[in-house]
Amino acid sequence: MTQLIADRRDIEFVLYEMLDIEGLCNHERFNEFNKRTINMMINEAFNLAIKEFLPANKEGDKTGCEFENGKVEIPDSYHRALDLYTEGEWVQLADPGCPGVVGMITNALFFGACSSIMMYPGLSYGTGLLIKGIGGEDIANRFSKKMLAGKWGGTMVLTEPDAGSDLGALTTSAKRNPDGTYSISGNKIFISGGEQNYHENIIHAVLARIEGAPEGTKGISLFIVPKIWVNEDGNLGETNDVVCTGIEDKMGLKGSCTCSLTFGGNGKCRGILLAGSDPEDGDDEGEGLKGMFNLMNGARINVGAQGYAIASSAYLYALDYARKRVQGKNLEKMRDEDPSVPIIEHPDVRRMLIWMKSHVDGMRSLILYVTNLTDLIEISDDDDEKTRCQGIIDFLIPIIKAYCTDKAFEVSAQAVQIYGGYGYTKEYPVEMLLRDSKIFSIYEGTNGIQSLDLLGRKLAMKKGKAFMDFLEEIKKATTNAKNNANLEDQAIKLEAAIDKIATVAMHLGTKIMPKSISAGFSFSKPFLDATGDIVMAWMLLWRSTIASQKIEGASKKDASFYEGQIKSAEYYIYSVIPGTMGSLDAIINGNDAIVTMSDEAFG
Amino acid sequence: MTQLIADRRDIEFVLYEMLDIEGLCNHERFNEFNKRTINMMINEAFNLAIKEFLPANKEGDKTGCEFENGKVEIPDSYHRALDLYTEGEWVQLADPGCPGVVGMITNALFFGACSSIMMYPGLSYGTGLLIKGIGGEDIANRFSKKMLAGKWGGTMVLTEPDAGSDLGALTTSAKRNPDGTYSISGNKIFISGGEQNYHENIIHAVLARIEGAPEGTKGISLFIVPKIWVNEDGNLGETNDVVCTGIEDKMGLKGSCTCSLTFGGNGKCRGILLAGSDPEDGDDEGEGLKGMFNLMNGARINVGAQGYAIASSAYLYALDYARKRVQGKNLEKMRDEDPSVPIIEHPDVRRMLIWMKSHVDGMRSLILYVTNLTDLIEISDDDDEKTRCQGIIDFLIPIIKAYCTDKAFEVSAQAVQIYGGYGYTKEYPVEMLLRDSKIFSIYEGTNGIQSLDLLGRKLAMKKGKAFMDFLEEIKKATTNAKNNANLEDQAIKLEAAIDKIATVAMHLGTKIMPKSISAGFSFSKPFLDATGDIVMAWMLLWRSTIASQKIEGASKKDASFYEGQIKSAEYYIYSVIPGTMGSLDAIINGNDAIVTMSDEAFG
Fold this sequence. Notes:
The structure is a homodimer.
Chain A: H1 8-18, H2 21-25, H3 35-63, E1 66-68, E2 71-73, H4 76-87, H5 100-113, H6 115-148, E3 153-157, E4 173-176, E5 182-192, E6 202-210, E7 220-226, E8 228-230, E9 236-239, E10 242-247, E11 258-263, E12 270-275, H7 287-324, E13 326-329, E14 340-342, H8 347-379, H9 383-419, H10 430-438, H11 447-458, H12 465-482, H13 485-515, H14 517-521, H15 524-550, H16 556-589, H17 593-596
Parallel strand pairs in A: 3-6, 4-6
Antiparallel strand pairs in A: 1-2, 4-5, 5-11, 5-12, 6-7, 7-12, 8-9, 10-11, 13-14
Helix pairs in contact in A: 1-8, 3-4, 3-5, 4-6, 5-6, 5-7, 5-8, 6-7, 7-8, 7-9, 8-9, 8-15, 8-16, 9-10, 9-11, 9-12, 9-15, 11-15, 12-13, 12-15, 13-15, 13-16, 15-16
C-alpha cells in the first residue's frame, strides 16, 4: 500500500541519514529530544493528519466558509481538527527547545493533509511571535501568550485594494489619541482568517500610516488591533470597530476564509503602536514594515513547505493510482491476448512519476536542510559560521518560496494527468490539490517578487559572499559524490551547472544590468528557476551518494528505497538539468525583446 | 482598450498575410467567399461570442448542470446562446463550400468565449458527420440531417469505468435481434452531453462488442443508439432504454454535462450497427474503432483549437489587467516620489506577457495553417501534393492536440499570476479558464497518448517522409527569413533546432528504440514538447519575416502590430529555444532511469 501525505521512510532518511538530527539532539539545547521521541511525534502527526485533517479537507472544500452579517463560519469539521491540533500542542513545537526540523516536518504533514486548516494556527502563532519579538514582555503577556497557545487568532493585515505587491502605496491611516492608543481607519482585503468563529478573539497586526508620516514604505507603522479590546490586565473589553465586509469566493483553499475588513468605519477603531514612525517622535522610520518582514521570512519558508507538502500528497496519490489502475498492455507486449497492466508500467506514466518524485524528494531535503541550518545557528558559538549559515538561508528563502510553490502546482497538475478523466472530478483528491496550490505562488510575495529579491538583493548580499557560500555547499556534495565511480559523471555534470550559474550571475551583474536594470530583471525568474533546478540536483546527488554507500547489504525494502534515490538523481541530472543548461544559455544570450518591445505591440 | 477573446488584427494577419485565403477564395470551390464576407462573418462571430457566450460562460460555471431523476438540465443561459448559434448556422460553416479556416477561426472565437456551450453543437455536428460518412444516404437522412442542423444532439460513447485510454478493454455488448437491430447492454461514463434538455433527441455513437467478436480493439463495433427511437421515415418512436445515472462534479467546464449512461438496463436498448465486426458476417474486423478514429482526428484538432482559444482569451484578459493595474514604481526609478506605474512596465510581468503572446500567436498560426492545408487538399488536383499535405497534417495532429492544450493551461496559469490575488477569485475571469483548460490535456486521448502517436506512428509514417516534409516546410520559412539580414541569425538558430530534432528522431529510432521500446517511449512526451516549441519558433519567424517587410511605411497602428511580431520571434528564438535545445540534449543522453527503476523504488 502506498502511503498517504508523505513517505515515512524518506522523512527518516533526510533527518538521520542526510542531516545529523541525532547529533543535533546531543546538544544541551535540544537534548530533551532523540530519534525515538522524534519518530513518535512524527507518528502522532501522521495519525492526526490522516484521521482528522484529511476528511476535514474534503468537507471544507465542499462547504467553504460562510459569511453573513459580518460573521464568518469556517467549515464545521475544522473545529475538531483545530481543537486536537491545539490540545496536542503541535504549534508550540516551533518553540525553542525542539529542533526546528521536527516542527517543520510535522507541520508539513498537516499542510499536506489540509493546508486550509493550518492557516488559522499558523497565523496565530506567527503573529503572536511577531508581537512578542517587537513588543516586549508586557505586550507579550497581554497578547502573544494566548496567541502562541492557539487560544486567540492572529492575522497579518497588509493588503489594500490598491496596495498589494506595492505596500508603500497603502492608505490606511492612524491618528494618535490622548491615551496613547491610535485611531485606525481604512479598508483592507485578502486578510486570511480576518474574521472567523473558531477563536475567542483575533489579534490583527495592521500596517497603517500615521498622519504626517512620509509617503512610501518608510512611513508605514505596525499596529496591534484586537477584534475585542484587551485590557492591560489581559481581560477582554469592548468589541473594537473592525468589521468584516465580505469573504472572497476563491478557486481553492476554500476552508481558509479570505476577508475584507473595514477598520474604523464608525470612527471607533483603536490600535496600539507596535513599531513604526510617528512623526511626533521623529524616529523609527521604516521600522513598521521591517517588523512585518521578519515575520514574512519565516512565512515564506512555510509557504514553500505548503508547496512541498501538497506536492508530496499529490505524488503519493498519483503513485497509488498508477499502481492500481489497470489499463492497456505493456509496451513490450502489445498483443490482444497479453494481460492488461497497471499504468505504472507505461513509460510516459513513469516519466511523470519520476519527475514528481525527484521534485518532492528534492524539496523535502531542501526545506529540512534550511531549517536544520537555523537549528545549527542556534547552537553554534562560531560567529563566522553563524553568518555563513544565515547567508545561505537568506539566499535560499526566495527559492524555497517560489520554486517549491511553482513545482507544487506542476506536480499537482501531473497528478491530475495520471488520474486521467477521474482526476478532473471532485470524487478524487487531486484536482483540489491543484486548485489549492495555485495561491501559494501568489501570497506572501508573488513568485515574481521572490525572483526580484533573489537577483536584486540576495545575489549581491555581502558582495556575493552568500551566493559563493551556497555554491561551495553544493561543491561539498559533488566532491563526495566523486568518490563513487558510478556518480562521478553526475558530479561533473552538476559542477558544470554550478559553473554556469556562476557565470550567468556574473554576466547579469557585469554585462546586462549595467546596460539596463530592466533587461537584467527580465531574467530574474528564469534565473531563480534555474537555481532551483540546480538545488534539486544537489539534494538528489547528495541523497544518491548516501544511498550508493548503503544499498549493498541493505534489507530488501531499504534497497528499493536506496535504488529510488540513485535512479532519481540519475534521471534528474541527465534528463532535467540539460534543459536547465539551455535556459541558462538563454540568459547569456541576453536578448532584450521583453523590455524593448513597446506596450502597444503587445496587442 | 485591449480586445476580448482574440486579437482581431492578428486573425487578419494570419488569414491574409501569412496564408493566402484571398487566393483560396478565387478557386471555384470557395468563390462564394471573399475577404469582405469572411471579415463580416468574423465580426458577427465576435459579436455573438462577446454578447451571449461570455456572460453565459460565467453563469454556467456558477450554476453548473443539474441532475435529477435521470434528467440533466444545462445552464439556463446556454439555451439562448445555442439558439442563436444554431439559427446563425455557425456549425454549418464546416460544410464544404466555406473555407475550413473560416469555420475554424469563428468557432475558435466561440471556444474562447465559452468552451462548455460549444461541446453541444460540436458533438452534434461531429457525430452527425461520422454517421453520414459511414452510414450512407438513408442513414444520413434519418439521423445526420437533424444533427448537422443542430436540432438533435450527438455523443461519442467510448469510455467505460475500466476502458479509458484502453478502448480494447471495453465490455459493453451487442446482440443481434431478428429485425436486424442490436440489443445493447453496458455502462458508459464520461459521456459529454450524454443527457441534456436542449435537444429534442440525442443520437449516441456507441462502441460495443458483438457477442462472439474477438477481444481487444479489433472486435469493437460502432452503433447508432438514439435516445428516442427514430423510425425509418424519420419520425420519432418510443423512448429507448438509455438511462443517465449521474453527472460528474468536475473541476471546470461545468456547463458541459459529463454523464454516466446505462444502456439496456431493462434489456430494451436498441441500436443500429454502423460499422464493425459481426462474427456472423465474418468481416469488417476493427472497422468500428476505425470509424470512430476518423472522427477523432478532427476532434483532436478541435481540442487543440479549444486550447488555443482559451489561451488567447487568458492572454488578452491578463494584458488588459496589466495595462490598468497600477502598482509599484518603474524599476529604473524607484524613489518614493516617483509615480506608481501600470504593472505592464515591470520586466517580470512583461516576460510573462511576451511568453503568453508568443504561444498564443504561434498556436493561432499553427491551427489555421493546418486547416488551410485541408482546404488546399480539397482544391488540389496534384495527388503527390495532396499526399504531402495530408502527411504534414497527420504529423501535426498530435502536436496540435497535446502542445496547444498544455500551453493553454500554462498560459491560463500565467494569467492568474498576473492578476495576483484577484486572479485567484471568481470575481475575475482567469481562474475559470485555468480550471476549464485542464480537461483538454486529458480528453480525446490524453497528451501522453498523443506523444505515443507522434513517436510510434507519425514519425515512422511513410518511412519518415511526413516528418521530412514537415522539416522541409520549416526550412522554407528559414530560407525566406535569411533574405533579411536582421533575421538571418534567428533563421540559423532555428535551422540548428531542426537539425537537432532530426538527429534526435534518428537517435531514438536507431539507438534507443532498438535497445528498449520502453526507454524510447519514455522520451515521447519530451520529444513532442520540443517539436511543439520548434513549431512555435517556425510560425513566429514566418510572422516576423512578413512583418519585417511591411513595417517600413506602415500606419502607426500596423507598425506596432508588426513590431510585436518581430519582437516575439526574437524573444522566442533567443530565450525559449535554448531550453528546448537542452531538452533535446537530454533525449540524446538517453538515460533509462525512468524505465529501469523498479516499481517498488517509487516509494
